[in-house]
Every structure is written in structure tokens, then in C-alpha cells.
Amino acid sequence: MEDMAVMASQAVANGLGAELKTGVTAVPPDQAEQIAREKYGLIGKAEWLWGEKDSNYRLTLDDGTQYLFKVLNPAEPPAMTSMHSQALLHVEAADPGIPIQRIIRTLDGEADFRMTDDDGGTRGVRMVTFVPGVAQKSQPQSALQRRRVGVLLGRLQKALEGFSHEAASHRITWDMKHAAGIRDLFGAFGDAAQRARLERGMDDFERLILPRMADLPAQVIHNDFNMENILVSAEDPDIICGIIDFGDMVYAPLLFDVAVGAAYQMGDAEEPVEAMCDFLRGYRTEKTLSDEEISLLYPAIVTRMLMRLAIPEWRSTLFPEHRTLYTRNSPTVWAQFARLDAISRDEAMARLAAACRR
Questions:
Q1: Domains identified in the chain and CATH numbers
Q2: What is the pLDDT of residues 148-197, one digit of tens each?
Q3: What does residue 4 show for φ and ψ, rounded to 5 degrees?
């Protein structure tokens, strides 16, 4: 088997992973507290939170009010930081009922700003409200919950319809437009059956989606509508409390946004297609896919699944100390593949198509 480091280098050479090659560079909590005081006039206690790319803190004031304070990855360009901030402001104005984090402006009225770290480099900083709730993944799932998640994705897409930004077409690893670049990583999987499944999924992407991708309706999308970025009420998990993490936003086909959401809503459901259909039935109350988009939905879902396996495996070679965190969801994805593959492809596609149509 080819060495994983060599394959990772090939992937980077293909333009993959530029923003994921830099690990989380933590800022000491006392420094985070100092920035909050000086730039926002907020005095509180900073508690570090895990983040794949950024240094995140829960800032709690004396009166109990909480904010999310983010010191962004050093590799993130200022234009990307601006895009994420402006998108949050745009969605808030377009549909105030969507439960997203709200931008907290600095004392100077900025939506975000640049700080200079101890090495002399600059990093983006953003403060937002702390959305209540717990991750959907941690709570029981239901058909009603999945349907409501689909409704929210449709609303979010509509709210973002008029949004544009100079950084919207930047290249990121999790953009499905560039999924073909991760084929180089499949050799890392020692199980021949697993490699074959990944190869089949990529073959479908290249054969079915790539030739038609340029003609698919596109706009700025959330691109990471997963169960850890969707917050629900701990008391009533069918109530959706928040949508977080706009860090993977990109200009891409709307279909990919739907495929990402559907792929994650499989969760641990014994009937994965029906779980995705619940989500799609909610989505269709707000937005509809064209017949062409519907025909490509199944292979797009599979593409996201194989990305969820290959990209964390690659990152874990760059930062082996975080391997457990990066690959924590891989067993779940392989189990989803097993349940999905137990259903005929034609049946699955027909059921997904029916759920998409009003």
C-alpha cells in the first residue's frame, strides 16, 4: 500500500487541503479575555472549546450572558473571515426567524477584526451570540425533527439567494466541486472492500455529476449542515434551536447543500433512505429541486459520505495527536454505507425522488 504521507502530498498538489494544513493554534484564555475587554467592552471568563480549525471560547459574563469568541485559523484569509461575518448579517436581515448566531460588533462597530498574534502574524477575530441547545447528534432523532431540519435548510438557502462576496468562490477541501481530488487518498484504506466502495462512489461522481456540474443552479451555500452544527432543545429534541458554523460556506450547486444535509440525517437510523426522505419532505416545503438535480441526488449523497471518510483520514496523518477526534465519525459512516447498500440503488433513488416532489 502506498505510504499515506505520499498520498497526502499528492492531494495537496491537486489543490486539496490548503485551509486544513494548519492546525488549531490556540490563544491563551487570559488573552481571549483581554481582547474581549478591550475590543468589545465585555468582561467575562473564557472557556476553550474544541474546533477543527479555529480557537474557540465560550465567554461568560458575570450576569451569566454567554458569547462565542472565535480567534480564526492563521491560514484563513481576511476576505473569508469577512464573507462569513457578512453572511450571518445577511441571513439575519433576510429571515430573522432563522436561529443563527448574531454578530456582536466591536466598540468600533466592526463585524470582525484582525489581531496580531505572538509570532507577528495576523488572525481574524469574531464574536457572536451563544446559541442555546445541544447537538442534534447527541439527542434522539425523529421523523418530525428531520423534517424540521429540512425546512430550515430550505429557508436558509432562500435567505442566502441574494448574497454575494468576493471570497465566495474560494477553494476549500469540503467543497464537493473538487471531490475528485481526494481519490488519491483511497489507498490509505487497507480493507479492499472499503477501497472498492470508495472507488465506486468516486466513479459515479466523475461519470454522472462532473459533466453536468456547471449547469446546476448555484449560489452561496452553508455546505456543512450536519448533526453537530444543528442544535436542538434538550427538553424537546424535536425543536430546532440553532444553526451554527458557517465556516465551510462556498459558492456551489444547491444540490450539494441538500446532499450534505440528507447524508447526515441518516444518522444511526435503521432505515437510512426513509430518514433522508423525512429531511427532503421538509426541504420541499421551502425549495424544490429540478428533475436533473433529483437524478443526481443519490450519487451526491454518496460523494459526501466518501469525503467524510477520506478527508479525516488524511488530516489525522498531518495531526496524529488529534486522530481520535478527526476520525470519530468514520465507524458511523461505514455503518451507513452498509445499511444503504442493502437497499437497491434504483429503489433508493425512486424513494428519494418521490420525497423531493411536491
A1: 13-18+135-356 (3.90.1200.10), 29-132 (3.30.200.20)
A2: 999 999 999 999 999 999 999 999 999 999 999 999 999 888 899 999 99
A3: -65, -35
Question: Cα(192)–Cα(118) distance, rounded to whole angstroms?
Answer: 47
Alpha-carbon distances, residue 87 vs 6, 70, 135, 160, 174 (angstroms): 37, 16, 22, 8, 18
- Exposure string for 268-287, b = 16+ CB within 10 A, e = fewer: ebeebbebbbbbbbbbbeeb
SS3 state at 284 = coil
Nearest to 12 by CA among 27, 22, 26: 22
Helices (H), the chain: 4-13, 29-35, 78-94, 143-159, 192-204, 254-265, 272-283, 291-318, 323-326, 330-341, 345-356
What DSSP string describes 28-97?
A: PHHHHHHHIIIII---EEEEEE--SSSEEEEEEETTS-EEEEEE--TTS-HHHHHHHHHHHHHHHHH-TT
pLDDT in tens, 274-300: 999 999 999 999 999 999 999 999 999
CA-to-CA distance for 297 and 284, rounded, in angstroms?
Answer: 14
What's the half-sphere exposure (Cβ side, CA atoms, 13 Å) at 145? 26
Is the CB of residue 172 less than 8 Å from the CB of residue 252? no
